[in-house]
């Protein structure tokens, strides 16, 4: 291994020799802050809507949320797929190839943004019904989605672009883009809901404006790209590079698509089995939306860590510094476990107090919320091992392993459990599906990484 405390040689990238934990801090903290600010925005948005619109408003945003997950699936495919190929080729000192990947990725951002906007606007009513909107929730959800759909291309391009900015060695600016839009969003939420009293439409307008600002700041970076100068002739679709981008972005894409399917499945089973219980169909739907936004805090840490480590994994894999690749994974997982324990404690000790922040409700609402948080979120301490492992395999070019891990928690385990357990245990079966799926996914992740580590140790790399 190279010494980690020597001076930086001219023209050499510190990703290849600087202390790993220092690199994780440098790259992951801005990413985590960005994700946390986005989570804080989502939570604040939910609080404002819950207190101004009420429980049906919370349920409406939950029903519309799969559309955001769909958009993020394409953003992650393009952003992570392009960034991973970019870092792998920069690490291997193949700059011309890296340029072509970047140009293809920037072009894909625009194409996917336009296609998603068109799809949502045409099929928005059908989408909301599929996502579990009840008769009472549907009007709120339709008003909300009709406006937020306009911001989806900007959300996609801003999120994908921030991955490229981070891969270029500017994690702080990537954070600035996300944070600026999210903070503006929070302020506009307060202005439009409490001052102008525009209701759920005001929250939707605030969301779109924030996404546009983040996009503008993101695009403003590329004329100042550090690795090389970006020229217009680099843009366009090159099928060979598009295929490679899709390959390395597929695991993240699948992960988000499965998350969307879980969200849709969960909404539908909660309304179905909730209607057969004392809670009715709307209470479980509203609680699920609130807890999902709370869980975004934990996800922010995991995804932020994974995105921060991606340049380290990719560059050192390309440079064949395998010990640094393994070290970065171990430290990321250890950090995620420590953070997960704090979130677990908060959910177990203060469930009712936390839910009350999101507005008032009847006694049954808080009764179900407490039960949901304590059971459904029982294994949150190990939840982030899966997204970190997905990004680990993607960042090191192991496409097939990344896809398997992407499918594991939600696809192989959670969706089947959500459909099967309620047949025997009613709505309680829905609650126990998540901790079982989390445990099984964690075992699979660590087993596959252990096999991969043995190959790295022996140098048996395909």
Task: List the topology elements.
Layout: H1 20-52, H2 55-91, H3 95-130, H4 138-148, H5 152-167, H6 171-195, H7 200-219, H8 239-275, H9 282-318, H10 322-349, H11 351-356, H12 363-376, H13 385-395, H14 399-425, H15 427-458
Helix pairs in contact: 1-2, 1-6, 1-9, 2-3, 2-4, 2-5, 2-8, 2-9, 3-4, 3-5, 3-8, 4-7, 5-6, 5-7, 6-7, 8-9, 8-13, 8-14, 9-10, 9-12, 9-13, 10-13, 12-15, 13-14, 14-15
**Percent helix range:** over 70%
Distance between the termini: 21 Å
Q: What would you call the structural class?
A: mainly alpha
| Average pLDDT over all residues | 87
- Largest β-sheet summary: none
N-to-C order of helices and strands: HHHHHHHHHHHHHHH
What does the oligomeric state look like here?
A: single chain
Strand content: under 5%
Q: How many extended strands?
A: 0
Number of helices: 15
**Weakly predicted, low-confidence segments:** 1-8
Q: Which word captures the global form?
A: globular
Rounded Rg: 22 Å
Task: Characterise this structure.
This protein has 462 residues and is mainly α. 80% of the residues lie in helices and 0% in strands. The chain has 15 helices and no strands. Residues 1-8 have low confidence and may be disordered.
Give a quick summary of the entry:
With 462 residues, this protein is mainly alpha-helical.
């Amino acid at each position: 291994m190279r010494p980690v405390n020597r001076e930086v040689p001219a023209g050499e990238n510190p990703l290849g020799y600087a202390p790993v934990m220092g690199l994780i801090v440098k790259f992951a903290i801005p990413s985590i802050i960005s994700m946390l600010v986005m989570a804080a925005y989502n939570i604040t948005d939910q609080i404002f809507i819950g207190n101004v619109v009420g429980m049906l408003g919370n349920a409406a945003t939950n029903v519309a949320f799969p559309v955001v997950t769909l958009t993020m699936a394409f953003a992650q495919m393009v952003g992570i797929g392009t960034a991973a190929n970019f870092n792998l080729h920069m690490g291997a000192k193949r700059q011309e190839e890296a340029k072509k990947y970047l140009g293809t990725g920037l072009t894909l951002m625009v194409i996917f943004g336009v296609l998603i906007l068109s799809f949502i606007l045409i099929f928005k009513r059908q989408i909301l019904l599929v996502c579990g909107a009840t008769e009472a929730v549907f009007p709120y959800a339709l008003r909300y989605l009709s406006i937020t759909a306009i911001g989806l291309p900007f959300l996609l391009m801003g999120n994908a672009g921030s991955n490229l900015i981070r891969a270029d060695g500017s994690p702080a600016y990537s954070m600035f883009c996300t944070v600026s839009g999210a903070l503006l969003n929070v302020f506009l939420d307060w202005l439009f809901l409490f001052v102008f009293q525009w209701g759920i439409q005001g929250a939707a307008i605030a969301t779109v404006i924030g996404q546009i600002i983040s996009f503008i700041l993101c695009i403003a970076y590329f004329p100042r790209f550090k690795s090389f100068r970006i020229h217009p002739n680099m843009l366009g679709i090159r099928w060979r590079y598009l295929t490679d981008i899709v390959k390395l972005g597929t695991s993240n894409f699948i992960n988000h698509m499965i998350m969307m399917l879980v969200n849709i499945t969960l909404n539908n089973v909660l309304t179905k089995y909730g209607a057969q219980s004392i809670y009715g169909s709307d209470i479980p739907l509203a609680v699920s939306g609130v807890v999902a936004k709370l869980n975004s805090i934990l996800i922010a840490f995991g995804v932020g860590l994974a995105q921060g480590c991606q340049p380290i994994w990719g560059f050192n894999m390309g440079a064949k510094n395998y010990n640094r690749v393994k070290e970065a994974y171990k430290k990321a997982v250890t950090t995620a476990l420590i953070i997960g324990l704090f979130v677990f404690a908060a959910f177990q000790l203060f469930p009712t107090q936390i839910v009350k922040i999101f507005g008032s409700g009847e006694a049954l609402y808080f009764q179900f919320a407490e039960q949901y948080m304590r059971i459904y979120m029982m294994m949150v301490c190990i939840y982030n091992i899966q997204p970190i492992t997905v990004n680990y395999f993607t960042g090191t070019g192991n496409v097939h392993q990344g896809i398997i891990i992407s499918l594991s928690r939600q696809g192989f385990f959670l969706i089947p459990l959500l459909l099967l357990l309620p047949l025997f245990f009613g709505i309680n079966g829905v609650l126990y599906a998540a901790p079982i799926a989390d445990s099984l996914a964690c075992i699979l992740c660590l087993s596959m990484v252990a096999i991969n580590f043995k190959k790295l140790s022996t140098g048996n790399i395909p």
